[in-house]
Queue: 2 jobs
Job 1
Amino acid sequence: MKLLNRFYQVSSSTLTHSFDASAYLLDTDEGLYLIDCGTPEGYAKCLANIGSLGYDPRQLKAIIGTHGHYDHLGAAALFKRDFGTQLWMHALDRVQVESGDAIKTTAAILYGSVFTPCLVDRLLTDGERLNFGNMELQILHTPGHTLGSVSISLKTSRMVVLIAADTLYGGFSPRIGSDEELWKISLDRLCGMNFDLMSFGHCSPGLVTDVATRLDCARRSFAIYYNPWFKDFAQQYTY
Ligand SMILES: [Fe+2]
């Protein structure tokens, strides 16, 4: 599904498999990249989506991982096995991905599945800018959902897109390394930045407008975890 020029969504719970988080294909002047890649269950359909857009997965250079969870990076080992695709991600989620930690990757506890371990080829650091010619990706370390969670500020010639992944509306559990105080700081940081469009990990395919309002709404609802009487996020998240 085309989102912007040379920027596509190739995975989601409706595009590929119900387990899958959002994943994106970037056609840059420096080659093809994925942001996240979904699960093994959605792998074949993800490949079909890439092919239907006219791209060859053998040309993929790297998966830029937002964090070490099964629904975002469970298929990374398959991409590496089949196409030699590298995996880039933040150091603080590296161990769980390289060891296939059943709990911290959420594979066993949420999906009843196995996270195939995958070696990380490059570590992403906060503030790092990946200049791909027609696109520049700035890595924003936004811990909270997991300690190694990153958001990505994707800058094209016309606009800036926030890929927030599970830093927005992700689940909270100490078992997966969630940290409430760090998460608040991360949300404050995103609220203080300017974006034209955004996406997050579990939403309908597409990009959200009115980003400042939506980020502020997310920030203010963060403490909802303390009150079981509030409506859940899915009910609140309407436009
Ligand atoms: Fe997650």
Job 2
Amino acid sequence: MTDFVVENRLFDPAEALPRGELAALQAARLVETVARAQAVPFYREAFARAGVDPASVRGLDDLARLPFTVKDDMRAAYPLGLLAVPRARIARVHGSSGTTGLPTFVAYTRRDLDTWAGLVARFLTAGGLRPEHLVHVAFGYGLFTGGFGLHAGIERVGAGVVPSGGGNTPRQVLLLRDLAADALICTPSYALHLAEVVREAGLGPSDLRLRLGHFGGEPWTEELRQALERELGILAFNNYGLSEVIGPGVSGECAARRGMHVAEDHFLVECLHPETLRPVPDGEVGELCFTSLTKEAMPVIRYRTRDLAALDRSPCPCGRTGARMGRVVGRSDDMLIIRGVNVFPSQVEEALLRVEGTAPHYLIEVSRPGALDEATVKVEVRPADFSDEMRRLVALRDRIDREIQAVTGVRMTVELVAPGSIERSAGKATRVVDRRPPGAR
Ligand SMILES: [Zn+2]
């Protein structure tokens, strides 16, 4: 564990705007956003279909009348149909990798890039990054918003960057050791892989100088945070964002680490019941929905993220006034229904992290050989345990079996596999393979 202590510091005074002033700013910016969106045929038509006259939108009470935007709308507008400014004003294009088919592109004006860098700088500062630090970025630099997005935010803080990019893990470990970076930035699953390679190289936290980790890009658990902090000797912070909204920087943790403060002066956040689409009370998990307030190139109105999390609007000791969102517990479209029970991959991860002797690299395979769903969880065993006698492996498997059933309520077949046999990814980890026919999921 690191002895590094994060002193509370704001990057931007707007993070602590009194709620009343914040609401007035949001209302004015919502009116501007609705006007800006009228340059996009998709939004003009969506407003007309919903029977909303854009000129009648005067404040935050009007938000609930506005039409939703979903990922399929973005796909249908391929490549840049949702652009609200002339092409000549595009400063950069990013994209999210579609798991199947075409990417979804997002465009930024010069001012959007400036806004974005400031938002990333906010959460990095809240999570202890200071101008004197050196930061190792192991996110890929490319269409994915992670690499360039974090890079610009680090520079905005005034810290130094090692733009390592994705892949070649042994080389990343070499850079971490020899350049002695203070902070690591990547996905949490990749950080775990890095920690393993560090250990395999016979190194430990004291051979690295890491003190901070800022992880995002995929859902992760509190148990994984503890494992990363232990293995890498860091304080680990969670951040959240998605390219459709702006990229990383939508929200991030402060030193209290009790939820991620949403940059509410730039995004209106709603937490909705995934079926009724009505707001759920604070503290209850719902689907997050964002409306951009300052974006120029591609404003989004009520974008349904499919990410499930709870909001907390109670005051935070750090003085920031933005609502805090809890960890993303799953995606409404990642949710597996196994024999009628809702299961999220994050629950399996939580169960595995309760069991000593497993590396939390896992893959859930779901099939339906007969009338019933069968779920198999492949779990990697740590090298030391893998060479162990059979009796102990059986005991380990039984323990995992019980924990998974305790957390998810579903009985799954547990298969222990050799260390390193589940494919690693520098981006988002693949956690589920669903072999059931599409109609039966
Ligand atoms: Zn706070």
